[in-house]
Amino acid sequence: MGFFEKIKQGLAKTRDAMAATLGSVFSGFSQLDDDFYDELEESLILADIGVGTSTKVVERLRGVIRERRLKTPQEAKDALKDILTEMVDVGSPELTLNTKPSVMLVIGVNGVGKTTTIGKIASQMVAQGKKVLLVAGDTFRAAAADQLEIWARRAGAEIVRQHEGADPAAVVFDGLQAAKARGVDVVLIDTAGRLHNKQNLMNELNKISRVVARELPEADKEVLLVLDGTTGQNGLIQARQFKEIAGVTAIALTKLDGTAKGGMVIAVADDLQIPVKFVGVGEKAEDLMVFRPREFVDALL
User: At residue 257, does pLDDT exceed 80?
Assistant: First the structure.
């Protein structure tokens, strides 16, 4: 099954919710007047695209309709697809992990599917013939390393872990030494999702980043923020905080198959200007897919 079909199935709840509101906008108006724009903006907000982004979308659409002298709701819908595609297409969908080893630091609050996402990425990379090492840097959460070890076995990847409560930066140091010694292609580092406060979390992530920069100064590095698609606008607030403290380079949105809030993908990409590189629409490793903006918008509408 291709990306379009899979994402279309995965976004069924979001699409049904949008069809109930947006569908009536495009079918219920014969002309593009102020009532049409008001109704459209309200529908976009209800689809969890967010107030700021929805306002921006409608303003852009007004401009395009004026400029191209569009007359019908169908023409407006096609123009809307172009605008939404442009908004989510903020960077390359490919990860920059070309050095050997390369490093991906995976961050996000507890419960978003961070460890599962690491496991799925590891499975895909191993299937591509890469040698992958997982580093259990979340030493604060009971059983986090156990969960990661299960995924490592399932994916055919190696793992470096220590006891619960160990210094995460020390675990990362051990992992990077192992990666260099074993000729690993990619190191995937799990991190704690929640410490006592934001300052502690910031300090911990900075410490890990410093270890990576010191031990592998030439390595390609991605900082992947995992967000739970079911949280809607709350996910956007989390993303802003992590962007501020961790230098996020890529976003993975999980659990989109279980929510009607898939519109948040547009809000996140537009607000943060950080590329969405993965979307998750199921439990299997192949259900975490490389994000394709146009196909995503086509499936959404």
Answer: no
String of DSSP letters for 157-197: -EEE---TT--HHHHHHHHHHHHHHHT-SEEEEE--S--SS
Helix (H, G, I), strand (E, B) or coil at 264: helix
Angle, alpha carbons 34-39-40 (nearest 5°): 95
Contacts 24+ apart (CB under 8 A), 91-97: 91/274, 91/275, 92/275, 93/275, 93/277, 93/290, 93/291, 93/292, 93/293, 94/277, 94/290, 95/222, 95/250, 95/277, 96/220, 96/222, 96/249, 97/186, 97/220, 97/222
Type of residue at 147: Q
Q: What is the mean pLDDT of residues 191-220?
A: 86
Which pTM does this prediction carry?
0.89
Packed helices 73-88 and 293-300: angle between N→C axes, nearest 10 degrees:
140
Per residue in 184-201, is it b (16+ CB within 10 Å) or e — as a string?
A: bbbbbbbbbbeeeeeeeb
- How buried is residue 171: exposed, middle or buried, by Cβ count under 10 Å (0-12/13-18/19+)? buried
Q: What are the CA-CA distances from residue 80 to residues 5, 24, 44, 91, 92 (Å)?
A: 21, 15, 11, 20, 22
250-254/221-228 β-pairing = parallel
Per-residue pLDDT at 124 exceeds 60? yes
DSSP letter at 225 equals E
Of 215, 121, 208, 124, which Cα lies nearest the Cα of 168? Answer: 208
